[in-house]
Amino acid sequence: MDKYFVIDVGGTDTKYGVLNQDADILEKGVTKTRSDQGLDGFLEFIKELYEEHGADTKGIAISMPGVIDEENGFCHTGGYLTFNQNQPFASLLSKKCNTKVHINNDGKCVALAEYWKGALKGCRNGLVMVLGSGIGGGIIIDGKVLRGQHFFAGELSYLCTNIKDYKNHQSMFGVGCSSVSMINKIKAAKNIEDENFDGYQAFELIHEGDEQAVAVFEEVTKSLALELYNLQVLLDMEVVAIGGGISRQPILIETIKKNWDHILEELPYHKYSSYMPQAEVKACEFTSDANLVGALYSYLNQYKQMK
Protein backbone atom coordinates (compact mmCIF):
# COMPACT_ATOMS: atom_id res chain seq x y z
CA MET A 1 0.00 0.00 0.00
CA ASP A 2 1.26 3.49 -0.86
CA LYS A 3 2.69 5.64 1.92
CA TYR A 4 2.61 9.43 2.30
CA PHE A 5 4.57 11.92 4.38
CA VAL A 6 2.12 14.18 6.22
CA ILE A 7 2.91 17.34 8.17
CA ASP A 8 0.88 19.48 10.59
CA VAL A 9 2.54 22.87 11.01
CA GLY A 10 1.68 24.58 14.30
CA GLY A 11 2.83 27.84 15.79
CA THR A 12 5.11 26.13 18.32
CA ASP A 13 5.39 22.51 17.19
CA THR A 14 5.30 20.71 13.87
CA LYS A 15 3.91 17.18 13.87
CA TYR A 16 4.79 14.75 11.11
CA GLY A 17 3.99 11.19 10.22
CA VAL A 18 4.07 8.48 7.60
CA LEU A 19 0.52 7.35 6.80
CA ASN A 20 -0.83 4.78 4.40
CA GLN A 21 -3.86 5.28 2.16
CA ASP A 22 -6.24 4.17 4.93
CA ALA A 23 -4.80 6.83 7.28
CA ASP A 24 -3.05 4.27 9.46
CA ILE A 25 -0.14 6.06 11.13
CA LEU A 26 3.00 4.00 10.57
CA GLU A 27 5.40 6.50 12.10
CA LYS A 28 5.01 9.89 13.74
CA GLY A 29 6.97 12.50 15.62
CA VAL A 30 7.06 16.12 16.66
CA THR A 31 9.65 18.88 16.49
CA LYS A 32 9.81 22.62 17.09
CA THR A 33 8.55 24.70 14.17
CA ARG A 34 11.41 26.56 12.51
CA SER A 35 9.69 29.80 11.59
CA ASP A 36 12.36 32.36 12.43
CA GLN A 37 14.45 31.99 9.26
CA GLY A 38 12.02 33.22 6.62
CA LEU A 39 10.60 31.30 3.68
CA ASP A 40 13.89 29.75 2.55
CA GLY A 41 14.66 28.52 6.04
CA PHE A 42 11.18 27.09 6.45
CA LEU A 43 11.36 25.26 3.11
CA GLU A 44 14.70 23.80 4.16
CA PHE A 45 13.16 22.74 7.49
CA ILE A 46 10.41 20.79 5.69
CA LYS A 47 12.94 19.29 3.26
CA GLU A 48 15.07 18.01 6.15
CA LEU A 49 12.04 16.35 7.76
CA TYR A 50 11.07 14.77 4.46
CA GLU A 51 14.55 13.42 3.69
CA GLU A 52 14.90 11.96 7.19
CA HIS A 53 11.44 10.45 7.60
CA GLY A 54 9.55 10.40 4.30
CA ALA A 55 11.95 9.98 1.38
CA ASP A 56 10.45 6.59 0.46
CA THR A 57 6.86 7.91 0.39
CA LYS A 58 4.74 8.89 -2.60
CA GLY A 59 4.36 12.58 -1.73
CA ILE A 60 3.94 15.27 0.91
CA ALA A 61 0.63 16.50 2.39
CA ILE A 62 0.68 19.55 4.66
CA SER A 63 -1.84 21.15 7.03
CA MET A 64 -0.83 24.74 7.70
CA PRO A 65 -2.26 28.13 8.71
CA GLY A 66 -3.40 30.76 6.27
CA VAL A 67 -5.88 31.42 3.49
CA ILE A 68 -4.91 28.73 1.01
CA ASP A 69 -5.91 27.83 -2.55
CA GLU A 70 -5.29 24.12 -2.12
CA GLU A 71 -5.94 23.21 -5.76
CA ASN A 72 -3.08 25.44 -6.92
CA GLY A 73 -0.96 25.16 -3.78
CA PHE A 74 -0.94 28.92 -3.26
CA CYS A 75 -0.86 30.74 0.11
CA HIS A 76 -2.75 34.03 -0.05
CA THR A 77 -1.88 34.56 3.61
CA GLY A 78 0.30 32.56 5.95
CA GLY A 79 -1.24 33.21 9.35
CA TYR A 80 1.61 33.31 11.84
CA LEU A 81 3.91 32.14 8.99
CA THR A 82 3.85 35.66 7.58
CA PHE A 83 6.59 34.90 5.04
CA ASN A 84 4.15 32.61 3.22
CA GLN A 85 1.90 35.45 2.10
CA ASN A 86 1.34 35.41 -1.69
CA GLN A 87 3.64 32.44 -2.16
CA PRO A 88 3.24 29.39 -4.46
CA PHE A 89 4.33 27.28 -1.52
CA ALA A 90 3.47 23.82 -2.88
CA SER A 91 5.42 24.28 -6.12
CA LEU A 92 8.41 25.76 -4.26
CA LEU A 93 8.55 22.78 -1.90
CA SER A 94 7.87 20.30 -4.71
CA LYS A 95 10.91 21.54 -6.63
CA LYS A 96 13.05 21.42 -3.49
CA CYS A 97 12.03 17.86 -2.56
CA ASN A 98 11.38 16.52 -6.08
CA THR A 99 8.02 15.04 -5.14
CA LYS A 100 4.31 15.87 -5.21
CA VAL A 101 3.23 18.38 -2.56
CA HIS A 102 -0.28 19.30 -1.47
CA ILE A 103 -1.21 21.95 1.11
CA ASN A 104 -4.47 22.93 2.80
CA ASN A 105 -5.68 25.18 5.61
CA ASP A 106 -5.45 23.67 9.10
CA GLY A 107 -9.12 24.24 10.00
CA LYS A 108 -10.29 22.68 6.77
CA CYS A 109 -8.02 19.68 7.40
CA VAL A 110 -9.69 19.05 10.76
CA ALA A 111 -13.11 19.17 9.07
CA LEU A 112 -11.95 16.73 6.38
CA ALA A 113 -10.58 14.31 8.99
CA GLU A 114 -13.89 14.33 10.87
CA TYR A 115 -15.81 13.92 7.60
CA TRP A 116 -13.66 11.01 6.43
CA LYS A 117 -13.32 8.98 9.61
CA GLY A 118 -14.74 10.92 12.55
CA ALA A 119 -17.76 12.74 13.95
CA LEU A 120 -19.02 13.90 10.52
CA LYS A 121 -18.69 10.51 8.81
CA GLY A 122 -21.75 9.87 6.66
CA CYS A 123 -22.88 13.48 7.08
CA ARG A 124 -23.56 15.54 3.92
CA ASN A 125 -23.66 18.95 5.59
CA GLY A 126 -21.79 19.76 8.76
CA LEU A 127 -19.41 22.03 10.61
CA VAL A 128 -16.29 21.61 12.68
CA MET A 129 -15.57 24.35 15.22
CA VAL A 130 -12.19 24.12 16.94
CA LEU A 131 -11.81 26.07 20.19
CA GLY A 132 -8.25 27.02 21.00
CA SER A 133 -6.30 30.28 21.04
CA GLY A 134 -8.81 31.37 18.40
CA ILE A 135 -11.71 29.56 16.75
CA GLY A 136 -10.85 27.50 13.70
CA GLY A 137 -13.38 25.90 11.48
CA GLY A 138 -14.28 23.96 8.41
CA ILE A 139 -17.63 23.64 6.65
CA ILE A 140 -18.77 20.54 4.77
CA ILE A 141 -21.49 21.10 2.14
CA ASP A 142 -22.76 18.22 -0.02
CA GLY A 143 -19.81 16.11 1.08
CA LYS A 144 -17.13 18.65 0.15
CA VAL A 145 -15.25 21.23 2.16
CA LEU A 146 -16.54 24.71 1.42
CA ARG A 147 -13.70 26.86 0.09
CA GLY A 148 -15.53 30.03 -0.89
CA GLN A 149 -14.77 32.38 -3.74
CA HIS A 150 -11.70 33.71 -1.94
CA PHE A 151 -10.81 30.53 0.02
CA PHE A 152 -12.01 32.25 3.20
CA ALA A 153 -15.04 30.12 4.09
CA GLY A 154 -14.86 28.70 7.61
CA GLU A 155 -12.63 31.43 9.09
CA LEU A 156 -14.90 31.59 12.12
CA SER A 157 -12.57 33.71 14.25
CA TYR A 158 -13.43 36.71 12.07
CA LEU A 159 -17.16 36.66 12.88
CA CYS A 160 -18.28 39.81 14.69
CA THR A 161 -20.49 39.25 17.73
CA ASN A 162 -21.33 42.82 18.79
CA ILE A 163 -22.36 45.43 16.22
CA LYS A 164 -22.52 48.12 18.91
CA ASP A 165 -18.85 47.64 19.77
CA TYR A 166 -17.37 46.05 16.65
CA LYS A 167 -14.07 47.94 17.04
CA ASN A 168 -13.41 46.14 20.31
CA HIS A 169 -11.10 43.14 19.95
CA GLN A 170 -13.39 41.12 22.24
CA SER A 171 -16.19 41.53 19.69
CA MET A 172 -14.40 39.14 17.34
CA PHE A 173 -15.71 35.61 17.78
CA GLY A 174 -12.24 34.06 17.86
CA VAL A 175 -11.11 36.42 20.61
CA GLY A 176 -14.15 36.64 22.85
CA CYS A 177 -15.29 33.02 22.71
CA SER A 178 -12.13 30.94 22.38
CA SER A 179 -11.05 28.51 25.07
CA VAL A 180 -8.07 30.74 25.91
CA SER A 181 -10.42 33.70 26.30
CA MET A 182 -12.67 31.73 28.63
CA ILE A 183 -9.73 30.68 30.79
CA ASN A 184 -8.45 34.27 30.96
CA LYS A 185 -11.89 35.58 31.89
CA ILE A 186 -12.11 33.07 34.74
CA LYS A 187 -8.64 34.12 35.92
CA ALA A 188 -9.71 37.76 35.89
CA ALA A 189 -12.99 37.07 37.67
CA LYS A 190 -11.19 35.10 40.39
CA ASN A 191 -8.18 37.46 40.58
CA ILE A 192 -5.89 34.51 39.86
CA GLU A 193 -2.30 35.59 39.22
CA ASP A 194 -0.83 32.15 38.55
CA GLU A 195 0.54 32.23 34.98
CA ASN A 196 0.22 28.44 34.78
CA PHE A 197 -3.53 28.46 35.41
CA ASP A 198 -4.97 26.33 32.60
CA GLY A 199 -8.11 24.72 31.22
CA TYR A 200 -7.98 21.79 33.59
CA GLN A 201 -8.02 24.10 36.59
CA ALA A 202 -10.74 26.25 35.02
CA PHE A 203 -12.98 23.21 34.60
CA GLU A 204 -12.25 22.07 38.15
CA LEU A 205 -13.79 25.36 39.31
CA ILE A 206 -16.73 24.92 36.94
CA HIS A 207 -17.40 21.36 38.16
CA GLU A 208 -17.17 22.56 41.77
CA GLY A 209 -19.90 25.08 41.01
CA ASP A 210 -17.73 28.13 41.62
CA GLU A 211 -20.10 31.05 41.06
CA GLN A 212 -17.72 33.28 39.12
CA ALA A 213 -16.28 30.49 36.97
CA VAL A 214 -19.76 29.15 36.14
CA ALA A 215 -20.93 32.67 35.20
CA VAL A 216 -18.06 33.03 32.70
CA PHE A 217 -18.68 29.51 31.37
CA GLU A 218 -22.38 30.27 30.84
CA GLU A 219 -21.58 33.53 29.06
CA VAL A 220 -19.12 31.88 26.66
CA THR A 221 -21.30 28.84 25.92
CA LYS A 222 -24.34 31.08 25.29
CA SER A 223 -22.26 33.06 22.78
CA LEU A 224 -21.12 29.83 21.13
CA ALA A 225 -24.71 28.57 20.97
CA LEU A 226 -25.92 31.84 19.47
CA GLU A 227 -23.33 31.73 16.69
CA LEU A 228 -24.21 28.09 16.03
CA TYR A 229 -27.85 29.15 15.70
CA ASN A 230 -26.83 31.83 13.17
CA LEU A 231 -24.68 29.35 11.25
CA GLN A 232 -27.50 26.82 11.29
CA VAL A 233 -29.86 29.35 9.68
CA LEU A 234 -27.29 29.90 6.91
CA LEU A 235 -26.10 26.32 6.38
CA ASP A 236 -28.80 23.95 7.71
CA MET A 237 -26.30 21.44 9.08
CA GLU A 238 -26.81 17.87 10.23
CA VAL A 239 -23.92 17.78 12.69
CA VAL A 240 -21.68 20.29 14.45
CA ALA A 241 -18.48 18.79 15.84
CA ILE A 242 -16.66 20.77 18.53
CA GLY A 243 -12.89 20.34 18.72
CA GLY A 244 -9.99 21.60 20.78
CA GLY A 245 -8.77 20.41 24.16
CA ILE A 246 -11.82 21.61 26.08
CA SER A 247 -14.14 19.54 23.86
CA ARG A 248 -13.02 16.53 25.94
CA GLN A 249 -15.13 18.00 28.76
CA PRO A 250 -18.67 16.55 28.39
CA ILE A 251 -20.12 19.53 30.27
CA LEU A 252 -19.06 21.82 27.41
CA ILE A 253 -21.12 19.97 24.79
CA GLU A 254 -24.04 19.53 27.21
CA THR A 255 -24.12 23.25 28.06
CA ILE A 256 -23.88 24.39 24.44
CA LYS A 257 -26.84 22.13 23.61
CA LYS A 258 -28.81 23.46 26.59
CA ASN A 259 -28.17 27.06 25.64
CA TRP A 260 -29.06 26.44 21.99
CA ASP A 261 -32.38 24.98 23.16
CA HIS A 262 -33.02 28.05 25.33
CA ILE A 263 -32.25 30.41 22.45
CA LEU A 264 -34.76 28.65 20.21
CA GLU A 265 -37.43 28.71 22.92
CA GLU A 266 -36.98 32.44 23.49
CA LEU A 267 -36.73 33.62 19.89
CA PRO A 268 -39.64 35.82 18.74
CA TYR A 269 -40.12 33.55 15.72
CA HIS A 270 -40.83 30.61 17.99
CA LYS A 271 -44.38 31.80 18.71
CA TYR A 272 -45.16 31.76 14.99
CA SER A 273 -43.51 28.46 14.13
CA SER A 274 -41.91 25.75 16.22
CA TYR A 275 -40.12 24.39 13.14
CA MET A 276 -36.52 25.39 13.65
CA PRO A 277 -34.20 22.46 12.78
CA GLN A 278 -31.17 21.97 14.98
CA ALA A 279 -27.93 20.26 14.19
CA GLU A 280 -26.65 17.47 16.41
CA VAL A 281 -23.80 18.82 18.55
CA LYS A 282 -21.02 16.42 19.50
CA ALA A 283 -17.30 16.40 20.27
CA CYS A 284 -14.78 15.77 17.52
CA GLU A 285 -13.49 12.21 17.51
CA PHE A 286 -9.94 13.11 16.53
CA THR A 287 -7.63 14.98 18.85
CA SER A 288 -3.94 15.41 18.09
CA ASP A 289 -3.90 13.57 14.74
CA ALA A 290 -6.83 15.32 13.04
CA ASN A 291 -4.69 17.62 10.89
CA LEU A 292 -2.52 14.74 9.69
CA VAL A 293 -5.52 12.65 8.66
CA GLY A 294 -7.31 15.60 7.03
CA ALA A 295 -4.24 16.69 5.08
CA LEU A 296 -3.88 13.15 3.74
CA TYR A 297 -7.55 13.08 2.71
CA SER A 298 -7.10 16.41 0.91
CA TYR A 299 -3.98 15.10 -0.88
CA LEU A 300 -5.70 11.91 -1.98
CA ASN A 301 -8.61 13.88 -3.39
CA GLN A 302 -6.32 16.33 -5.17
CA TYR A 303 -4.50 13.51 -6.94
CA LYS A 304 -7.63 11.34 -7.33
CA GLN A 305 -6.25 8.50 -5.25
CA MET A 306 -9.19 7.92 -2.91
CA LYS A 307 -10.43 4.35 -2.91
From TrEMBL:
One of its GO terms (molecular function) is kinase activity. InterPro entries: ATPase_NBD, ROK. It holds the Pfam family ROK. Keywords: Kinase, Transferase. The keyword Kinase applies. PANTHER family: ROK (REPRESSOR, ORF, KINASE) FAMILY (PTHR18964), SUGAR KINASE (PTHR18964:SF170). Belongs to the ROK (NagC/XylR) family. This is Putative NBD/HSP70 family sugar kinase.
